[in-house]
Amino acid sequence: MVVLLLCLAVRFLAILLVHMAVMYIMVVILLFLVGTISGNTADSAGGGGGVSNGYSVVFTMSGGTISGNTAHLGGGVYVSYDDFTMAGGEIIDNKALTQGGGVYSLGHFVMSSGIISGNSAGGATSGFDIGLGGGVYIFAHGFYYVVR
Fold first, then answer.
1. What is the DSSP letter of 49?
2. Which of 26, 101, 125, 138 has the most CB atoms within 10 Å of its CB?
C-alpha cells in the first residue's frame, strides 16, 4: 500500500542580541493522509513503533492505518511534548511493552475522529507502571481531548 506523507519543514531564525544569544526555532509539520505504517519495532527503551513525534513536531493523522507495531512506550504513536491530532484513520493492533499500546503522550493529543482499537500494553519483565494504557496513556504533563 502506498504511504503518502507530506512533510513540511518550516524554519524560523530569530537572533536575540540579549547577552549575545542566538535562538533557532524549527517546526516540522507531518500530515499522514493515506496508507499503512505497520510491522515496525522501536529498539530498547525507545518509543513509537509506528511514529515517534519528536520535539517541535506537529503530527496530524486524518486517514490511513498505524498497525502491528511494537515499542517500549507507545507501540503505535509516541508523542514527546508536542502536538498529535487524530482526525481520522486507525491505530490498531499495536503493542507497548510498558505503557500506551496505541498512543503514549507527553504532549497534547486531540482526537476528533478515527479508531483506536485492539492495542495492548504489558509484557516487559521489569520496570514500573507496566501494562498501563492499552489504547492511550497520557503522562502527567500531557493533555488529551476528545472532540465530538
1. S
2. 101
5 forms beta bridges with 32
The whole-angstrom separation of Cα 62 and Cα 45 is 28
Extract the C-alpha cell encoding 62: 486524518
Q: Which residue has the cell 518509543?
A: 47
Whole-number Å distance between alpha carbons of 51 and 24: 25
47: DSSP letter = B
CA distances from 115 to 64, 86, 102 (A): 11, 9, 10
Cα–Cα distance between 56 and 80 in angstroms, integer?
9
Length of the chain, in residues: 148
Q: What is the pTM of this model?
A: 0.76
